[in-house]
Amino acid sequence: MTDGRALAREFLEQQRQLGGNPVILPDLPGSGMRDAGSVAPPPPAPAHPASRIPSPDLPPPGISYDPPGGDLFSNDPVPQAVSLEAIAQLVASCTKCRLCEGRRHTVPGEGAAEARLVVVGEGPGRVEDETGRPFVGPAGELLTKILGAIELPRERVFICNVVKCRPPENRLPQFDEIAACVPYLFRQIEIVKPKVILAMGGTAAQTLLNTKQSLGALRNLVHRFRGIPLIVTYHPAALLRNPNWKKPTWDDVRIARRLIG
Fold this sequence. Notes:
Blueprint: H1 4-18, E1 61-65, H2 84-92, E2 117-121, H3 126-131, H4 137-149, E3 158-161, H5 175-192, E4 196-200, H6 202-209, H7 215-218, E5 222-225, E6 228-233, H8 236-241, H9 246-260
Parallel strand pairs: 1-5, 2-3, 2-4, 4-6
Antiparallel strand pairs: 5-6
């Protein structure tokens, strides 16, 4: 395992190169990192952002997807929604696809309106459909632990899914269902303006990046959605089925935490 103090020194050197305030990453379980001690003030920031040096310890850039925004002057109410609550109300009455026929509750998402991190999953499961809340049950408990390990309490993160109603028998959302529902997700991200997006699972990653590449091909890269850094990792439900994916997921989440700063 890499020495924790060496990792801390690398991160602090990155902060100096970027001209930001020195930040010490939290003591993350399993990371081997410890307190790096006191730090001298950084040098003045570069005069122009273009002169900043890219971080040497982040993955290479990946896909950059910039879908067009909605027309504020059209009859579509989604682009005109000014808050997460307004989006939730639109979702509650939505009948744009067949998923509305079997739902008990819509699951628009929950969390801080000014969250630094947005977590996006696939779609509601049985417990989510019963409660109207995203990521509850065993997978949700695991997500809460993952977020806690990087010192981001669940209530400080905005958590949502690509589709807002449960697909029958927890099957994958179909293309037309995603197309009908994704404007809600895009508008939620516009409203929150997070520093980082964490796409958990192949459906979330492919939807946000407009690609058919596999989850494995999309990991270990820093993608961008409308300029926002986006990290791809496994869904917590997949980790419950295959514990061997917990280590790569932890690596992905630490990258997201580092990007948040």
